[in-house]
From TrEMBL:
PANTHER family: PROLINE DEHYDROGENASE 1, MITOCHONDRIAL, PROLINE OXIDASE
SUPFAM superfamilies to which the protein is assigned, alphabetical: FAD-linked oxidoreductase (SSF51730)
One MF term in the entry's GO annotations: proline dehydrogenase activity
Start and end residues of each stretch annotated as Disordered: 457-487
Source organism (scientific name): Poriferisphaera corsica
Phylogenetic placement of the source organism: Bacteria, Pseudomonadati, Planctomycetota, Phycisphaerae, Phycisphaerales
Protein name: Bifunctional protein PutA
Gene expressing this chain: putA
Amino acid sequence: MFDNSSDQNVKKKSTSEHSVLRQTQVSLPVNNFENRIQEIGADLLEDMHSLSSNQKEPLTDKLMSWSMNDNGFKTQLFRFVDTLPALKNSKLVHDYLKDYLFQPDVNLPAGISTALKAGRFARSAFAMTVKLQVESIAKRFIAASKPNDLLSILHGQWQNGIAFSIDLLGEECLSDDEASEYQNKYLELIQLLSQETCSWQAMTQLEVGYNHHEPRVNLSLKISSLIAKVDSINFDYTLNSLEQAIKPILISAEQNNVFINFDIESYALKNLTIKLFERCVTKYQFHAGIAIQAYLHSVEHDIQSLINTAAKYNRQFTIRLVKGAYWDYEVINAKQRGWPIPVYTKKVEVDASFERMAEKILNQTPKAVGQGGAFLALGSHNVRSISHALAYMKELGLPKNAIELQMLYGMAGTLKTAVVNKGLRLREYIPVGELLPGMAYLVRRLLENTSNESWLHAGESQSRSDQELLASPHQHSLLDEANHDTK
């Protein structure tokens, strides 16, 4: 989800530094597979450095950089962002911003501190500037407020060699009327996009997969918006209600050659989402996909269940492997309720799980047209994770079009350009919606990308070399286990 300004994760390095990196790789005491990962990763990073060498950092990226270096500033800034849509005038914007940022644990950049203490006129001007900058950040991650406003963006990205998956933003559905409205929006979107895209130029790189065809229109939906008050305790009743709600969408998708991806949400809704997906792919012949979160302890069991369904019913579908975007919520919720924490608590454990699960899915790639199995859609901006999957594909003798890379709209522009230039299929996950209902999504993206553990933060740090960015998470996991055992 992206423009070029999002590439703050790449430090500028000279060609000679990359040559040293490659020479170092050859002498490392690692196996041939790890060497291949390092070579692919170094090549990608070199391309990214070259693409980003002349870019300037806009104010939106400066705000994110400040947030990376100060957790107090980050927390208070994003609390302010969450309230911003409800603030109707510049005085309220200024007063709330001042209340949030003038806190003991917040170290304000000098310019912001001075502006907040300025006179009335200057305060008003600064408040409006802040609001415009936050809206600018929102537009960076949320492509449009209405589907019709999106068409030119989608067509432009298609011409640049980038496919799309549309997500209609919104909060959890609380009434039958809201559920009906959500269903109608997706039915309208299927008709609009299937008609609009039929005249687009054919793109072999985006449309011809390995032993399958990729529809031009790809939509992502969440089960929490299908019916009012999804109840995972009343499992069977809720499952039946969800099927009835999604059935018209799936039938229309099948008739119009549209791909439907089931998004994964919180852990509480995970089993319902997977069971609904497994039921639907056995009943309806739509182009199907589902997101699975690598940070869950249950991820291998979840993927195996999907693999069994594909084999039993000779069905092809895509598994979108992501690391997961609800980590903070899952940890806090489990601790408050006294439950086991359902997610890995260390980044290196999540990264290692992600690589293991990528291999597991790639092993299930259908070897013939019509053969049941799962295709991998790798949802990541992490060059190490991407390089690992590409290296494993080579181990299996799979061609480039056996995998799809998926990234978020508004981020990692140079990485996108680099993978497209290498002939890989890339799809952007594109949110569409109004700023107010989309604000929760925006704040998650901001928190994700200013986390001390995030890929963007790691790349921004001048102390991190390319070798560190491409380091194997499995080696770190083994060291952690060894250190723990000696205590």
